Amino acid sequence: MKPGVEQSLHTPLEPKDVEELRDPRGAGTYVFLTRIWERQWARRMLLLAGFGLLYALSSSPTWYHGPTEVMFHPYFPVKDDLRYRPYENFTLADIGTIHWWRCDGPLDQPGTECGYILVPLDYFNQSAGVAQIALGKYKAKTQPSKGSVFVNPGGPGGSGKLFATGAGPLLQRVIGPEYDIIGFDPRGIHDTLPQTECFPTPADYLAFKAHTPLERGYDVHPNFTASNRAQLVRTQRELDALTEAQFAVCEKNMGHLLRYMGTASVVRDIDFMATAFGGEDVLINFWGGSYGTILGQYLVNMLPHRVGRVVIDGVADAVAWSSEPYYKWYREWLSSTEDTYRIFASECAEAGPALCALAEADDTGADITSRMESFVDGLYFEPMPVPDADEPGMLTYGLARRHLLEMLYTPLAWPRLAENFAQAINGNGTALLNALQLVSSYFNDLARSAVSCNDNEPFAPPDPEAVVDELLGVTKEVSRFAFAAVTAEPDAGCQYWPVTPPERFDGPWNHTLKNPILIVSNTADPITPIVSGRLVNSLLPQSSRLLVQDSPGHCSLNLPSLCTAKYVKSYYRDGELPPEGAVCKPDVTPFGAPKTSAALTAEDQEMLEALESLRRTFAMTNGRYF
User: Where is each Peptidase S33 tripeptidyl aminopeptidase-like C-terminal domain found (predicted)?
Assistant: First the structure.
């Protein structure tokens, strides 16, 4: 076999089965196409064609309640026409085709491979067409290889392909050099086709939501007056109208293709890819952070018999995600946010003015919080003009509160957060407005909504008053960031979603798995709290272990810990779980204050530096440019 060619399923490839193609995207780059032997597909077709016909004849969606077999097997691979063709020219006969070529993007690491695999657009309707799943791979460095680990950095909207090609060597430091690291862009996202393209260009979508509640969020009076409630209800009506309009645009420009972007379809793709890369009996290994933990929960409960080594880090509640409307999520989502905010303020005070721009001599954490809150609340009454920003505008309560929440996710960016807010408090909001506009630009279309709304159980449009009252209740009882979460995590409006997916998974979530999974949760994660990790652990008591990292931030990677990394590496290497009740501490501090622990070995220092580099790539591919 020629180097760089991916073998599919279990039949060895012979030279006649592989052809090298010149990739039209760049001179000197070769595309490798893997052919899957006809006899394997014919055998599966005989076994499963009857079920495939049943699904093909069914036009109703599948409300999925447990593991089942899905009929992708009857599709034949490409066998004659091996020329490069654009996506729109692929047909059902091409399903199973895999292309690989050397990555050459500005963020791609040496030795990484880019590619795609063609899969059924609809696993229950053979006539629907083809999806092209974008791939990135960093090959195992030691032999014998233990197979592949699929990775997803979250979002929904983060690029798994870029995560693998931009951080493959770093991921191997944590997962192990004996694994291929394979990232993929889920349905509708980045390079996977069809893309979610509701608006003609990213600029068109940014223009659509500019200066509206989709961008500005809600302005909440510090004392929750009756008149402010009426104002919030008007804002909610505007937000409802905007989401209804944007989804109507989606339906107009994308039509039925919107149906195929849900998480259940992504699990089917993982199943298909695992078989294509490793064979029908191979177990599926996976690492997922943030939304990737929702994908991981779907994966292990839809395919419990295929679970290999699975780690989910920064756990979101998939039960609520699939069964409750968005405005009822925040009581759980924000249950640790105030803890994170207190840690930010106390760490700033401890670091002092030399390391935290918000701090003054002899400050306490309460002093920092008071200064921040006075500024943010003041914007409710008097927004700040910012003429010198990259996109001149104004700072409002809603914008500042949302950005503060977003920046709590990444503790190692807290010095920049403090600097930006300190400048704004002193009258110059340029850096702060530039920073929050950069994060907003990540959500440049509706790929996230295409996932969350296809996953969400359909619900009738709620009264705006009911939504506002729920958010006010969360604000008073749980966290001051309730309204900010609506725009920081844009999942609102699914009551207007115009299509029905072919499959929506709604549990059960408590299957006995082939192998136990590892759950990692921070004690003060501001958006995927530890209570969600404990929930998954309680649903899978014999099939999971919870590893706690005693730190703030969203996912353990955002404040690196050698202890956590070593437990994760041991799990992937040997299947060894941490002891029950294990708690890890981070090895760095948010504001760069020196740790008092013993000096690190050279190996540990290298690992810590790799974790910090991995953190930056994770933040970028997760959609948080910090």
Answer: 483-584
Question: What was the pLDDT predicted at 88?
Answer: 83
Average pLDDT of 561-581?
97
H or E segment and range at residue 115: strand 112-120
Are residue 372 and residue 454 in the same domain, yes or no? yes
Number of H helices, E strands in the chain: 20, 16
User: What phi-psi label fits residue 522: left (phi over 0), alpha (psi between -120 and 50 degrees) or beta?
Assistant: beta
Does residue 535 share a domain with residue 587? yes
From 469, 496, 523, give the residue that closes a domain. Answer: 496
- What is the DSSP secondary structure assignment for residue 575, as one 8-state letter? -
Instruction: Show the 3-state SS of 319-364.
Output: HHHHHCCHHHCHHHHCCCHHHHHHHHHHHHHHHCCCCCCCCCCCCC
Structural domain tally of the chain? 2
Length of the chain: 626
- Cα 254 to Cα 121, 276, 471, 492, 584: the distances in Å are 14, 29, 32, 20, 46
Average pLDDT over the chain reads 87
Q: Phi and psi for 401 in degrees, rounded to 5?
A: -65, -40
Residue type, 57: L
Task: Give the contacts of 118 (CB within 8 A, at least 6 positions apart).
Answer: 90, 94, 95, 96, 97, 98, 130, 131, 132, 133
Question: Running DSSP on this structure, what letter comes out for residue 482?
Answer: H
Give the global pTM. 0.88
pLDDT band at 524 (very low <50, low <70, confident <90, very high): very high
Token pair, residue 324, equals 């409750």
**Residue 83 belongs to some domain of the structure:** no
Identify whether residues 405 and 527 lie together within a single domain. Answer: no
- Judge whether residue 493 has pLDDT over 80: yes
Q: 20, 89 in Cβ contact below 8 A?
A: no
Q: Which domain holds residue 457?
A: 202-257+334-496
Q: 445 with 536, same domain? A: no
Of the listed ranges 25-34, 169-178, 448-457, 505-514, the least confidently predicted one is 25-34
Question: In terms of pLDDT, which residue wins out, 354 or 4?
Answer: 354
pLDDT of 352-391, one tens digit each? 999 999 999 999 999 999 999 999 999 999 999 999 999 9
